[in-house]
Structure formats: C-alpha cells, structure tokens
Amino acid sequence: MSTAWNILDPASPEPVREHQLGLNRRQFFGRSATGIGVAALAQLLGKEGLAATGEKGPGKGLPGLPHFAPKAKRVIYLFQNGAPTHVDLFDYKPKLHELHGTPVPQEYLGTKRFSTMTGDPKGKLMLEPVEPFQQHGQSGAWVSAFLPHTAQVADDLCFIKSMHTDAVNHAPAISFLLSGAQIPGRPTMGAWLNYGLGSPTQELPGFVVMTSVSKGTSCGQIFYDFYWGSGFLPTRYQGAKFRGSREPVLYLSNPDGMPRALRRGLLDDLAAMNQLKFQLSGDPEIQTRIAQYEMAYRMQTSVPDLTDLSSEPDHILDMYGPQVREPGTFAYNCLMARRLAERGVPFVQCMHAGWDQHNSLTTELYTQCRDTDQPSAALVRDLKMRGMLEDTLVIWGGEFGRTPFIQGDITNRPRWGRDHHPYAFTVWMAGGGTKPGLTYGASDDLGINAVDQPVHVHDFQATVLHLLGIDHERLTYRFQGRYFRLTDVHGTVVRDVLA
User: Fold this and answer.
1) CB count in 10 Å sphere of residue 240
2) In the predicted model, what is the mean pLDDT of residues 453-475?
C-alpha cells in the first residue's frame, strides 16, 4: 500500500516537500486532470511564446526568416571588453594637441553624467593622443601607430565614429550593447540569431563564445555569463563557451570502458525518457537537455577536428602572429573563429578584456594593441582570401569610448589614464554587406560628443540584424505579457553603411 504524503504535514520527508513546493504552474496544469490541464497548458505555452512560435525545430530557426535576402550569413564579433580609447586609436583630433594640459571647455560637457571616478569633469585637463596618427589606404582612414596591422587593411573596413550609448559602467554597457538592456536577463544578439535563424551545422553549437585576457594586465574585466546568455529564450539558444585550452569543452570524451555504440544507446534511452517527461510537463528546458546531449555526442568528433591545426599552413599561422599556437590567446581565438565560421557556425563572439586604461595608457595600452591588432587584421585578410568576407560580418569594438581629458596627474606620464566615455566612440565592421573603406559619422573636434550622423546602440543592433536579413521590429518573443526584441522599442537601420 503506497503512502500519500500531505504537503501541509510537517512530518512529510523534506525531499517530498521540496519537490511539491517546487512545482511550477506549467507542471501543475500539465499533471492536472485532462480537460482543464490540457487547455490551460496550451494557453500558458502560447502566452509565453513556448508553443505556436512556429519554430522549425532545434537548429532550424523560425519560419519566414530571414525576412529578406541577407548580405551576411554569419557574424564574428571581436568584442573588446573595457572600452578601447577612440581618441588614441581611430578618432584623430588635432585640437587635442592644441589644448593639451588645459581645462576641458565646459560648453562641450553640459550636464553630462560620467563615472564616479571622474565625478564632476569641470577642470579636468585635456590629454593629447599618446601615439601619432596617419591616414592609410585609398580611403584615407585615420589610424594610430598603435595599430599598424589594422591600418594595412583600412580599405576593407567600415568605421563608425559616431557611436554613443546610455551606460557609463562596463557590465551595464556590455549588456546594453549585446542584449539591448543594461540589466541582465534579456537574450543577447547571438542568442536572438540562434533562435531566429538557426544554424546550418548540427556538429557544433550555433553560438560559440571564446574569451581572452592579455598577460600581465591590471585592468581585466570579469566575463559574466549573461554576456552570452539566452535570457527568457530557451537555454539551448545561449552561447556555448569554449575554454582556452586544448580541451575547449569538458566531458566530451567517453569514460574508460564505454564504447561509442554503448554511449549512443544510452543517449537514445535517455532522450526517450526526457521526451516522456516533456509530454507531462511541457517544460522547454527538457528539450534543451535532449539537444545538449545530442550536440555533445556529435562534438566528440567535430571538436577534435576543429582544434587540430596541423592542416593550417605556416604562412596562415604566421599571419595571425606569434600567439596563435597558444590556446586561450586572442590570436588563437581569432583563428578558431575562422575555423568555426568555415564549419557553419553562424555567430562567434571573441571577447578580449583589459582595455580599461584608467592609469595605464602609456604602458598596458601597448600590450592590448600588440595582442589584438595583428590577429584582428589577419582574420579580415584570411576571410577575404577564402572568399568568405563577402558574407561574413566582422565587428570590432567595445562598450563605450574613453574621455579625451585625463584621469590622473598630467605631470606623471607613466600613469596617464582616461575614464569611461559613453557619448562618442568608434567601432569598425568588415564584410557582410558593409561598405569597405567608409568612415561614417563623426564626433566633435575634441572627441567628446557624437555630432555628425550619430549612431545609437539600438541603431547599430538594427543594422547588424538587417545585414543578416532580419527586420529588427519583427523578430520578437512574447514574455510576461509583452513582446520583446533586441532593439527594445527603438532602433533605425543605418543604411549609409550598407554596400
């Protein structure tokens, strides 16, 4: 005779009470009597975007997408955590030399908000660029001596020098740029694309993330998981983080004594049990679990092939720089990004931390540029040589810029620094339907405000989606009674940068 435990009875075993208390409303209705249970479950799933979304199945995206012919099939986002200094790298302002050491003109600042490290910017001294600038290529793009390799591919790049954002600190600004909201919890760009467009490959995840930090840096940022999270989308759309080692994904190998055929049979049985559970509860995370087991099984062969560089010619490896053979470096991750793109992965996010030069412009900025300049340019060259740049969108940039005035003592050159600056910064794009050799927009003559053709973060997001064949206003997901999208309720496509 079985015992029926009462949830209100304090004598009930704790595991039983915890299980019963943990039932969510979808599980409750799914286990209720037929009739109201089935009807309520269907209604709940429909309201929360978990049913009737029109999904074509794992990895296949939504019907009707893309909305129009895409110019780009994939994205490689070279995200520079910590905010590269636009006025030292790309945004040449001769007037900074003229005003070096003098107080920042108040008329440029108004009532602008800066980080607590700056506080009131009144009286802060202007700081000239650390290294000289030159124009490069037929386009005449201004690039600092910090980035000689990027300068050589300037004619392949599309610079946006009028970017601006709403956030003044790193994590909110990164979240805002990648997910459209400063507070974590929204799907990131890669997750939206993984959900909407799916992936042409079933051997690797549709959204892969790799991280790196320059050795010896004192200004590395934390890589929070929400930078590649799926938010309220099912978690199978979140980014898969590859570690910086020879074994980028843990637990792919079968245990000793387990042949591959036995593992296949075990996964089939496990999938059958999970499917029964899904039919009872309707929990989409069960489908995620099934998909993850299957992906892990396929990755047992695809990942070793991915990380085997023996087929790469020496001249290609040399092009990426001396760190390319060292897993976990930015150079290695850039090469992996190309190899992932070749194998059909539609969104690769390479995040490199250490750009937060509050007091190290004359020291650590050199290290950052040395570690990222050559690999970034090599990736553009490599894709172009393979005929892939035309339909691969490469993005390079951080979450905001840095102040044209100094943080610190101007008489102590080894400790020069710049604070966070959201009102103007630069990103560049290459390939994927962007105009090569274009410089779009401009900041004012001190690099403080975006004044000519300003591009807000939401405009940038709308433009990236457009290049992938997506109308940013139509890729939505209903959650908690509201339709959400990457661009929130804003965003205008910057058509002048489209080829």
Assistant:
1) 21
2) 98
149 CA to centre of own chain: 23
Which of 75, 302, 53 lies closest to 207 in space, CA to CA?
75
pLDDT in tens, 480-490: 999 999 999 99
Distance (Å, rounded) from C-alpha 301 to C-alpha 311?
16
> Which stretch of 31-45, 71-85, 163-177, 241-255 has the lowest confidence by average pLDDT?
31-45
Residue 438 phi/psi, 5-degree rounding, is -105, 135
The full length of the chain comes to 499
For the whole model, what pTM was predicted?
A: 0.86
What fold characterizes domain 74-252+302-497? Alkaline Phosphatase, subunit A (3.40.720)
| CA distances for 288 relative to 59, 296, 304, 405, angstroms | 11, 12, 24, 49
Farthest CA pair distance, the chain? 91
Boundaries of CATH 3.40.720 in the chain? 74-252+302-497
DSSP-assigned beta bridge partners for residue 84: none
Terminal Cα distance for the chain, rounded: 74
